[in-house]
Design a protein that fits this description.
Layout: E1 8-19, E2 22-33, E3 37-41, H1 48-55, E4 63-68, E5 71-72, H2 78-83, E6 86-89, H3 101-111, H4 117-125, H5 128-141, H6 157-169, E7 175-179, H7 187-202, E8 206-210, H8 214-220, E9 223-228, E10 231-236, H9 238-242, H10 245-252
Parallel strand pairs: 3-8, 3-9, 6-7, 7-8
Antiparallel strand pairs: 1-2, 1-4, 4-5, 9-10
Helix pairs in contact: 3-5, 3-6, 5-6
The chain binds adenosine-5'-diphosphate and magnesium ion (MG).
Adenosine-5'-diphosphate binds near residues 24, 42, 45, 46 and 50.
Length: about 260
């Protein structure tokens, strides 16, 4: 299981995160392999969002490091980590509510490339038609062509989530992090999102997905890490994790079905 056996895109190396006396993360070591969908599950308050925030630079761990594509990203700013190729969908949708669906998806494409935001913005203005076309492509991808000119603030929660995914896809990220992508969605919207995430998976995009909904996890994950009280208590394929008594005790409370 050394890092040389497979291509590790993200390595969370012995991360600890303390909030005062609370150990939100302790001894967390994780390897996310290229092209895989890696799910992180665990009860409420287990430290899942904290782990994601450490990975995207919103939190600096008390100790340990996060290595992305061979580079230590601990201490880098969120936008720098984003520019390096990490896109993320947070628990609460982060879109520009005043803009249309199309404008929201075009925005990250304008801002992207090399970190020099202003220069790139001006440079990319010359490519507006090209970016518009690419944005329309990803809007179609997430099944929102009919709403392309809709005011995004008025969208349903499920549609906002799909819009955010399109905003991520246009960045062509090397790694996509999703924090409860189906939270608050109807069963229908959840199923649409699962199908969409499966489609993205077929293209070989590496994903980390934090999810409560076991149906979503078992439909998508290649590998699952189980977090409880800030520690990884089990790791393996969906079948291995499902049958692990520690997991049933800590997380599923014995009620696996
Ligand atoms: P999860 O996403 O698994 O539900 P979180 O990562 O949100 O769990 O929280 C893990 C623990 O850390 C919880 O006890 C939570 O109250 C605490 N926590 C999270 N963020 C902070 C913070 N910024 N300051 C203090 N405590 C926090
Ligand atoms: Mg959370």
């Amino acid at each position: 299981m050394s890092t040389s056996d497979h291509n590790v895109v993200l390595h969370v190396a012995d991360v600890h995160m303390r909030f005062g006396g609370l150990h939100a993360l302790a001894d967390v070591d994780l390897e996310i392999e290229e092209g895989k969908t890696h799910a992180i599950i665990g009860p409420n308050g287990a430290g899942k969002s904290t782990l994601l925030n450490v990975c995207v630079g919103r939190l600096t761990p008390t100790s340990g490091a996060v290595i992305f594509d061979g580079q230590i990203i601990t201490g880098m700013k969120p936008h720098e980590i984003n520019q390096a190729g990490v896109a993320r969908v947070f628990q609460t949708p982060e879109i520009f509510p005043e803009l249309s669906v199309l404008e929201n998806v075009m925005a990250p494409a304008f801002a992207k490339r090399d970190g020099a935001f202003k220069l790139n913005f001006l440079h990319n203005l010359g490519k507006e038609a090209e970016i518009r076309e690419e944005a329309a492509h990803f809007i179609e991808d997430v099944g929102m062509t009919a709403q392309i000119d809709a005011h995004s603030g008025a969208l349903s929660r499920g549609d906002k989530r799909r819009l955010e995914l399109a905003m991520c896809l246009i960045q062509h990220p090397r790694l996509l992090l999703l924090d409860e992508p189906t939270a608050g969605m109807s069963r229908h919207d959840t199923n649409t999102t699962i199908e969409l995430l499966k489609k993205i998976k077929e293209r070989g995009m590496t994903k980390v997905i934090i999810e409560h909904d076991m149906h979503v996890v078992f439909s998508l994950a290649d590998k699952i890490s189980v977090l409880a009280q800030g520690r990884i208590i089990a790791e393996g394929t969906p079948d291995e994790v499902r049958n692990d008594p520690r997991v049933q005790e800590a997380y599923l409370g014995g009620a696996t079905e």
